[in-house]
Amino acid sequence: MNKLLAVVLVSLAIASSASAKTIRVHMYMLPWGLEGNQPVTIDEVRQHPFFKFEILEGAYADKFIASLGEGEMTSGFDAELRDVRLVIEADEDDGSTRVFFASRFAIGASDTGKGRLIDDAFRSRFSGFYFGHG
């Protein structure tokens, strides 16, 4: 009986320490090539997107967030992330929301402050949503 209780407690501890799963994704976008006089902020993209997309199925949402390359993000990308074009909100099964944002040059995670450079292949994944313009 003690062994069974120990196994149950260890299983619960492992399950509670596992990372949250993404259940829904909201994306707000401006065209990559849009030019303006001032850098665009995360809030401005959310408030005035040209395009808004959602992933409503949890398995696809989770895979999509995994494809952003969060594990490759490191510190030191502040300058590359000033003029935002893409905001991604990931609703997690534990009730939290993670926010990712991208400029034309990098993607970052707001909760960690880390980022990584992006390339044309990354940008083209999103340009296809609005027929490749920008």
Counting DSSP H or I runs of 4 or more residues, the number of helices is 4
For the biggest β-sheet, the strand order reads 2-1-3-4-5-6
Mean pLDDT: 83
**Share of helix among residues?**
25-40%
The number of domains is: 1
Helix/strand/pairing category = alpha+beta
* Beta fraction: 25-35%
* Radius of gyration from the alpha-carbon trace, in angstroms: 18 Å
Shape: globular
Oligomer: single chain
Low-confidence stretches: 1-18
Tally the beta strands.
Answer: 6
Q: What is the chain-wise order of helices and strands?
A: HEHEHEEEEH
Instruction: Give the end-to-end Cα distance, rounded to a whole number of Å.
Output: 64 Å
> How many strands, what sense, and barrel or not for the largest sheet?
6 strands, antiparallel
